[in-house]
Design a protein that fits this description.
Distance between the termini: 29 Å
Number of strands: 0
Radius of gyration: 17 Å
Structural class: mainly alpha
Length: about 90
């Protein structure tokens, strides 16, 4: 849960500097939490691939995974709910 703690600290800092509105702080915390966890996940996949010595498989995995996640995200944004995909 360190992502949540880090995102809360970032949002608190941005609120103190008047960069973001405090009324929307919860949405920013959630967004930063997703961003941090996604970046860390991608970096871990690349790091493991470099250590194992074959980056091609990691890149093909990331391309496939990110394209599927991208399609789901825009489907959720278009329909307004995740329940559309849960069926």
């Amino acid at each position: 849960m360190w992502e949540r703690t880090l995102s809360q600290k970032l949002v608190r800092l941005f609120c103190e500097q008047k960069v973001i509105d405090e009324a929307k702080a919860d949405a920013y915390v959630y967004g930063y939490e997703l961003l941090i966890s996604s970046v860390v996940s991608v970096l871990l996949v690349v790091l493991i691939a470099v250590v194992c010595g074959d980056v091609r498989y990691a890149l093909s995995f990331l391309i496939g995974f990110i394209s599927i996640a991208h399609q789901m995200l825009f489907g959720i944004l278009r329909t307004g709910t995740y329940l559309h995909f849960a069926k």
